[in-house]
Amino acid sequence: MKKSNQYVGKALFVFLLVVFQALAVSAQQSAFKLNELGVFKKHGVDLMIYNDSYNAGGFFDEKVNGIEMIQHGVRTVTGGAVRLSPTPEQWDLVPVVTSRVIDAKSNTALITLFYKEFNFTSKIKVEGKDNGCLITVILDQPLPKKLEGKASMNIEFLPAVYFKKTYLMDNQVGIFPQVAAGQMIAEPFSEKIPQFNNLLTSERFGNTYAKPTPFAQGKKLVLSPDDPKSLVSIASSTGEIGLVDGRNLASNGWLVVREVIPAGKTGNVVQWSFTPNSVDGWIKEPVISHSQVGYHPDQQKVAVIEIDPNDKALPTAILYRMDEDGKQVKVLEGNLANAGKFMRYNYFKFDFSSVKQPGIYKIQYGTYASEPFPVGKNVYDNIWHPTLDTWLPVQMDHMFVKEAYRVWHGNPHQDDALQAPTDTLIHDGYRMGHTTGTKYKPYEHIPGLNIGGWFDAGDFDIQTGSHNTVIGYLVSAWEDLKIMRDETMVDKDRKYVAIHHPDGVPDILQQIEHGSLALVAQFRAFGHAIRGIVQPHLWQYNMIGDAGNLTDGLIYNPNLKPFQKDGFTSGTMDDRWAFTTSSPSGDIGSAIALAAAGRALKSYNDSLSAECLAIATKVWNENVAKKTENQNSGDMADFPVDFRRSMSVGQEANLTIELLLATKDKKYSDYLTKIWPAVKNNLGAGRRMSFGAGSMRTLLKAIPYMKDDYKNDLRLQAINTSKQLDSISTTNPYGVPLGQGGFYSQGGNFAMVDWSLNNAKLHQYFPDIISKEYAIRGLNYVLGCHPASSISFVSGVGVNSKRVTYGNNRADFTSIPGGMVPGNYLIKPDFYENQENWPFIWYENEVVVDGCAGYIYLSALVNDILQKETGK
């Protein structure tokens, strides 16, 4: 025991010595200076002051808001704000920024926040002081009574950064928990601050709710004293700060540092000295971006090297080939082309297109090496297989899904669905107006909806618009490429799916069928398309795990008590709701998909094929051919007039073309000729051709059925597109359209796939105008040649690919093979991020069904183009 005490004493002495040395280094650092962009900067550290505000009315707390910090190349802090709970969840109330004053001259930022629900205003002043800053909460009026003991100054730290790290709180020492381990208390439900629209993220049990408590409290907190790159100190001069684990309440919670605002006080009610450490001379490691699946011998091969602006660029990079005995053979040493500064970093290009010999290669830049990658004619052959084989089957709703020994999920939602009530707004934008638009009463069971469809993303709703897009992508892949791959057994009678078990039917046809069944079910039940089907309770919607556990599978019976069952029905209202609002644009959107599906399903499921085409024809007759001038004038009322006009004429063209391809009936080509001037008017630069993902691709398909003028008009559009593509090639080092990134914004992978598909199809029709490289370039971006890292954004595809994604298994810090994430997201003003160690950032990591279907089509199409044009 004596030796043990001596060992502990020595260890503590060494630990404290490291801490004191780190704090001494911190004390010697340069001043924090505020620039005009609202960023306090010192070497290796950026503190952003409300460059992003909370998304009130949308997705609320997205963990990309308030005071944020990038420390040594990693965003470690978000959510610096006055909040109303210890560890805010996504759907908690968020403040609106009513004023943001950035004064670089005085090195001060002043933010005014307002909670309209409580008529509560607060100000946060951030002032650069020495090597840190003072964060002060200012109140002109005392806290509202309802917020006493609840409102606090919060700032949130990313848990993954502090795994295996320590902290100091006054004289306490501790280790950051890698799993949720804080203490919860039960408080009266009447004390809970309401969440968005009075929804609840946690199921209510009795008259209490669970509230997190601090696992450390004191006047001064030092985070990560053992690692200078993530060391931060926070000291309060006004009260006690607490360190609280948000993961106890929400799987996606962060570590929260908070100080409760005192009741009855005004003026400076909270004041912190906030000091992030800066490592002297720190320079971010270079990133060698390249395709993680490799390159076809006859395509362009350009790696992009991203370096810190404080780093000195090397003049050359070296390409090595790996021999059979493991030796590296120098193949090429090439000069780097300066690609200039983009966002915060400097970029250089390494072109090795001249290398065509098949083999395994690696790029060396100074002491840094890329991952190995192949060059060969087969590199794109199977890169879409995990997505079609595994990811898409796992997303199949209303089916039991198994892979080898693993059950992905049970047979969910057999109790679909209840009629959503009128005048209702819930999560994810689901809304019902004053009427249901159906024969069903609110909360009445609607039969026939428990068939087909896919989970939309990391959640479990059926989004009709996404289904339309998926079917469009898959039908195009089937018709263009005749993908015969069969790796999945689908037993419709048993509602059973077995992955990696061939059943003699092309998987892509079975997926088209499965999606079409969900859309057809809507027309059978209502006579029109609907918004979607979703879990009504927020505590269901945010569930992670087996979809089969979301509901009890029994149809809701209002004559039974909650949790009471009679063997066939249940008194528990856990059934999903159908949001049944009808619109011409919604009907036409689904009809476009069904017209395409009707073609693909011929000779496989003839009865469903005929029904799909009958629905599409009926919608065309009612909403297109016989449309009066003002028939659809109220459709999409929330959008600008120009957008509505473009969307309307674009949808008309799409549906007309899909039916033309299905029937070869001249009335459709005649109608397309009639509306062509209006369609053409919405093409080109400065006009948004707003008819969905496949606008240009659909127009191209009609060329064989139209006169030469039609093709000539599209040829002119291809010429204009070529000019735009050439311009994009020089706007950033990657030669693709980059912007905010994330879900469907420019620079996100879903938009990148669609851009690349348009380029690929334009190349096929006009190869003398559009190079195939514009299609390949976008695919290579998704597969690793992008800013911030060189990871493949498709799980299980490439040497280094996404291992952690926002899927329905995200709580396990893992992924579903074949899922493509949104990718990089721009943290304003200039920092691209994709978190690989934290799956819960949905706009970077959530895999969605339409994006993955587009990836299948693009990957297979690029491979087909290369094989046909260069030879296998």
From TrEMBL:
<dbReference type="InterPro" id="IPR013783">
    <property type="entry name" value="Ig-like_fold"/>
</dbReference>
<feature type="signal peptide">
    <location>
        <begin position="1"/>
        <end position="24"/>
    </location>
</feature>
<dbReference type="InterPro" id="IPR001701">
    <property type="entry name" value="Glyco_hydro_9"/>
</dbReference>
<dbReference type="Pfam" id="PF02927">
    <property type="entry name" value="CelD_N"/>
</dbReference>
<keyword id="KW-0378">Hydrolase</keyword>
<keyword id="KW-0732">Signal</keyword>
<feature type="domain" description="Cellulase Ig-like">
    <location>
        <begin position="287"/>
        <end position="368"/>
    </location>
</feature>
<dbReference type="InterPro" id="IPR012341">
    <property type="entry name" value="6hp_glycosidase-like_sf"/>
</dbReference>
<dbReference type="GO" id="GO:0000272">
    <property type="term" value="P:polysaccharide catabolic process"/>
</dbReference>
<dbReference type="InterPro" id="IPR014756">
    <property type="entry name" value="Ig_E-set"/>
</dbReference>
<keyword id="KW-0624">Polysaccharide degradation</keyword>
<protein>
    <submittedName>
        <fullName>Glycoside hydrolase family 9</fullName>
    </submittedName>
</protein>
<comment type="similarity">
    <text>Belongs to the glycosyl hydrolase 9 (cellulase E) family.</text>
</comment>
<dbReference type="Pfam" id="PF00759">
    <property type="entry name" value="Glyco_hydro_9"/>
</dbReference>
<dbReference type="InterPro" id="IPR004197">
    <property type="entry name" value="Cellulase_Ig-like"/>
</dbReference>
<dbReference type="GO" id="GO:0008810">
    <property type="term" value="F:cellulase activity"/>
</dbReference>
<keyword id="KW-0119">Carbohydrate metabolism</keyword>
<feature type="domain" description="Glycoside hydrolase family 9">
    <location>
        <begin position="451"/>
        <end position="856"/>
    </location>
</feature>
<dbReference type="InterPro" id="IPR008928">
    <property type="entry name" value="6-hairpin_glycosidase_sf"/>
</dbReference>
